[in-house]
Amino acid sequence: MCYVEIMPELWKNSVKKEVIGSIRVVHQFVDMPKESATFYNTTTGEIQEVHGCLPAMGYSFAAGSTDGPGSFSFEQGTTTTNPFWNAVRNFLATPTEEDIHCHGAKPILFATGRMQFPYEWQPRIVSTQVALIGNVIIAGVPGEFTTMSGRRLRETIKTATNSVTYNEDYSIIIAGLCNTYSDYITTPEEYEIQRYEGASTIYGPHTLTIYLKLYQNLVMAAIQKREVKPGPNPPNLSLKKMISFLTPVLFDTAKWRQHFGDCVEQPESIVYPGDIVTVSFISGHPRNNLMTDNSYLIVERLLRNNTWITIATDADWETKFEWVRTSVVLGSSQVYITWEVPEDVKQGEYRIKHFGYYRYIFGGVYPYEGVSNTFKVIQPEPNIRRRRHA
Asked: SS3 for 97?
């Protein structure tokens, strides 16, 4: 049984709880290498003060995971270094003895916290936040928590709520990859094993310990309606300062005796549900206009009053939009648009339109559009084998 079949039953039979109450959001930037927390060491039975580390990636990071193995001879579970790869690492940035000691079981492959060109390779300052929506608590975390790390965070939040209120039965949600991406967050025990996730826990063995303290404080502040300090400002990586390796669009041409928007590959006159309709247009470069809140294509159906309505855009799964450069020297290109006709489509007349912009060789960016011939979509008669067009 697939998820599509299971989910309606889970939704139907699940216990529903109404969300009632006020909304409050608490946010704080945190410089992780400067943070500390208390940690109970189950091995020694002692309570220790632990600290965050400058970001670094371990050897097992390069080994990849089971769904995407890495290259060379890297293996998961590596806790020793290699002179050759250390030399490669040191060419980029050399970790200090303090870095090596701080990261403990992790042999450092990339000292990313000391790599600043052209920007920080990994963030020091992360974004932490908690949203309180009635009796629902959403903890927005800046990375990928392992299953056990997520459980410990939920338990910490639950304990924090019980310490400040006894009147609410809170539902706790951990929402990952919020505002900042800081790779994985493992438990201290998972970190010691140094598999892929542990090697990708960039602030050292007590990354989770620090996050537990931070989110405990955020949750209590949200419930008690206390203000928190905003924290240090992260680096400004605005688009104006970003380095792009994309070459600019210099100009577009439509080749001899052709115009932008000309449909050079027309659809077949009759198609059936399940068929794939393909059309091609003379086009400009798509980066001339990213068509934000718009579409490079639409599929339209003709109504009885001779007006066209849009039934699909480039945001629909059944459509595909492919741009192909046909001549680098002349700056000419084409787009190929495909539409997989849905099984439940209505019979009728259809057409496909393409929208774009071209860059004139002497300056300026101008819009154009093109439209295909109309074609009919017909539901096949029972027991008649359906054709497919590729």
From this structure: helix
Q: Is pLDDT above 60 for 384?
A: no
Q: Residue-wise over 22-40: b if at least 16 C-beta within 10 A, else e?
A: eeeebbbbbebbebebebe
CATH number of 262-377: 2.60.40.2300
Q: What is the DSSP string of 13-27?
A: HSPP----S-EEEEE
| Beta-bridge partner residues of 237 | none
As a residue count, the chain comes to: 390
8 A C-beta contact, residue 360 and residue 366: yes
Domain boundaries, the chain: 19-224, 262-377
Segment 122-161, tens digit of pLDDT = 999 999 999 999 999 999 999 999 999 999 999 999 999 9
Tokens representing 87 are 């030399």
* Binding-site residue set for Zn(2+): 144, 184
Q: List pLDDT tens digits, range 305-336.
A: 999 999 999 999 999 999 999 999 999 999 99
Q: Assess whether pLDDT exceeds 90 at residue 386.
A: no
Is 305 exposed, middle or buried (CB count within 10 Å of its CB: 0-12, 13-18, 19+)? exposed
Give which of 325, 185, 202 is closest to 253, Cα–Cα: 325
How far apart are alpha carbons 323 and 285 in whole angstroms? Answer: 8
Which residue positions form the known binding site? 144, 184
